[in-house]
Amino acid sequence: MADTTIFAPSRQANAPHDGKLVVAFICTHNSCRSQIAEALATDYARRGVPGFDRFTFVSAGTELKNAINPDAQRLLLERRGIDMAARGQRPKLIADIPRPDIAISMGCGVRCPFIGRPFDANWELDDPTGGTDEDFLRCIERIDSLVQHIPELYGGPSAQ
């Protein structure tokens, strides 16, 4: 049995989270890709896109940065109208989130973070940090295309 002690105590026994499945987007620093995924998925749920109401979306990392990547924040706000700061998103450690029903790695290159259980998917996304706006926009679009399939992959219709 997987060690679940690294997750928030409220979900140690994997009790229902308002009856929804918890999807966790995981990367090393929880400052860019995983934050983008959480923001996009949560936006679909808030807008009532079919299938997304079955899930609660969170993100976390194994190490902590001081803030969400400012380019990711700026471009999501400019291009999608999603204000991560206003929604209360902040960098979190794995210990700060509920134990996920579905764990998705953003891609970790040589070293994947240990989360006490296997990942359900590894999206193998390049980190746009330090890149151009075009690098960030490509990453946002790729994450969006993957997020749209969560309901069909894990229960329910897709966002398309």
From TrEMBL:
Q: Which domain of life is it from?
A: Bacteria
Q: List the SUPFAM superfamilies hit by this protein, alphabetically.
A: Phosphotyrosine protein phosphatases I
Note whether Oxidoreductase occurs among the keywords: no
Task: Please list the residue ranges annotated as the Phosphotyrosine protein phosphatase I domain.
Answer: 21-153
User: What keywords appear on the UniProt entry?
Assistant: Arsenical resistance
- Pfam family of the protein (one): LMWPc
UniProt-listed GO biological process terms? response to arsenic-containing substance
Q: Entry's InterPro entries? A: Ptyr_pPase (IPR023485), Ptyr_pPase_sf (IPR036196)
Fetch the PANTHER family from UniProt: ARSENATE REDUCTASE
The identity of this protein, by name, is Arsenate reductase
Organism the protein comes from: Pseudoscardovia radai
